[in-house]
Please model this.
Amino acid sequence: EIVEDDVEIEEVIIEDTETDEQEEIVEIEEVAEEVGVEEVIADVPFAIIENVPIYPGCEDKKNNADRKKCMSEKITKFVNREFNTGLAQELGLDGKQKISVQFKIDSKGNVVGIKSKAKHPRLQTEAARVINKLPAMTPGMQRGKPVGVIYALPIIFQVQD
Model:
């Protein structure tokens, strides 16, 4: 079947961008920066933050690497102490259990936005309960300003029969 082509298509004329030696070059004047506009810095992952948040007890660490190590060790110790590992056995789970947890240390140093993922919803709830008990910290800094820092933590434990 042959269809009639009745639709009018507007022809687009593409202008020539070539220039020649006679064409005048126009100087563009400098654009002044807006004063008083504050740059908003998005949340920064823990791995790349300029100055990591400082967990209570890690204040004496002088560089970022030592502060990161101290913070990770303190959070791990806290979670190991507070987490109810007997819960997995109560739920009839066995073997290695892994709970992926992510949270944000906000620009005031508080733990917020806790997300957890596990095989069982009660393990997720328990992980969130424990992370919610973390103490307030000195906030992380990016370009001299306090910012939110995203922290990921795997909680792994073995259920013994």
User: Anything to note?
Assistant: The mean pLDDT is 82. The chain has one domain: 44-159. Residues 44-159 form a domain with the Fusion Protein Consisting Of Minor Coat Protein, Glycine Rich Linker, Tola, And A His Tag; Chain: A; Domain 2 fold (CATH 3.30.1150).
